[in-house]
Amino acid sequence: RHPKPDTPGPNQESVWDYPRPPALQKANHRLRVILGGKVIADSIRGYRVLETSHPPSYYIPLEDIEKNAIERSKQSSYCEFKGAAHYYNLRVGDEYRPDAAWGYDNPTVGFRELK
Q: In 17-104, which residue ranges form alpha helices assigned H by DSSP?
């Protein structure tokens, strides 16, 4: 059985309209990440990846993330479109989010902006 998508409303997108293979787009707005009440990332240089049936994934350059709030974890995965991914833990005070973000050291050609 396949899901039946809802019709998007005004100023909405449907994940069912996203492409496969995925597409990379420059984010057209400011991206901020707040953890434990503190802004740990703030960027106007981000990207988003759009893939059929998936919510957009947003990518923020490491230079726009607080260095003391992010640490590389041991977790990894592989995407047939983007390549080998590594994960990051996020921490601010007592707030800790293991493997909450991911990135690519050597993304495939179509996604090289994610490096």
A: none
Could you give the maximum distance between any two Cα atoms of the chain, in Å? 46
DSSP class of residue 7?
Answer: P
Q: Give me the chain's average pLDDT, please.
A: 96
Confidence of residue 4 (pLDDT cuts 50, 70, 90): confident
Contact 54, 70 (CB under 8 A): no
- What the block records as the tokens of 16 is 């069912």
pLDDT band at 14 (very low <50, low <70, confident <90, very high): very high
- pTM of the entire predicted model: 0.90
Asked if 36 and 94 count as a contact pair (C-beta separation under 8 A), the reply is yes
Q: What Å distances lie between residue 30 and 25, 67, 86, CA to CA?
A: 14, 19, 24
Report percent pLDDT > 90 for the chain: 95
Cβ(85)–Cβ(107) below 8 Å: no
Residue pair 42/48 in contact by the 8 Å Cβ criterion: no
Give yes or no for a contact between 69 and 90, defined as CB atoms under 8 angstroms apart: yes
